[in-house]
Amino acid sequence: MGLAIIIILITLALIFVVRFVLSRKPADIKEEYTQAQLASNMINTLLRTTAKECSSSSFTELFQDCADAYPDGTIDCDTGEKSCSYLESKIGDIFDNTLRKWRKDYYFKAVAGTNTLVSDGNVCPGAKTHKEFPIPSSATTINIKLDICG
User: Fold this and answer.
1) Measuring CA to CA, how many Å separate 97 from each of 13, 89, 105, 108?
2) Where are the domains of the chain?
3) Helices (DSSP H) in the chain: which residue ranges?
4) Closest CA to 127 of 26, 36, 43, 38
5) What does the pLDDT look like over 41-62, one tens digit per residue?
6) 23-to-15, 109, 129, 132, 138 alpha-carbon distances in Å
7) Inter-residue contact 99 to 88 (CB < 8 Å)
8) Regarding beta strands 106-112 and 141-149, do their DSSP bridges make them parallel or antiparallel, or are they unpaired?
9) Nearest to 83 by CA among 109, 112, 115, 118
10) Contact between residue 118 and residue 110 where contact means Cβ atoms under 8 Å apart
11) The whole model's pTM is what?
12) Beta-strand relationship, 106-112 and 57-58
């Protein structure tokens, strides 16, 4: 009788271990996947967005112009800025109205060769989900990177 009680207690302990220890990993995987999709979708949407103030150029075209004629760019915007300074100011506004409002820490960086075209947010101190998009330009390849901290 005592042996049966011990076996039942061990079985119950194993059920609790399986229930609480193994059920944590899918939640972490789901969060990581969600953040990866968020980073990917944010960059994809940003690159396809049109800047009406800059001759209706897309952000992809603005990045290419900025990389080709760094540090100013050649595209004139209605705001009185060239493509590089327009990107710097507008990207901060876009992320302020999205990721910061959603209380997501992030780090965005656009690099062409050795030149940093745009940088916004704070470098993630710990774990992060990273997405990177390359954009070809006539001078070099532009790497657009977004880290979602978490």
Assistant:
1) 48, 13, 13, 14
2) 32-149
3) 2-21, 24-48, 59-68, 83-96
4) 36
5) 999 999 998 888 888 889 999 9
6) 12, 35, 21, 31, 50
7) no
8) antiparallel
9) 118
10) yes
11) 0.74
12) unpaired
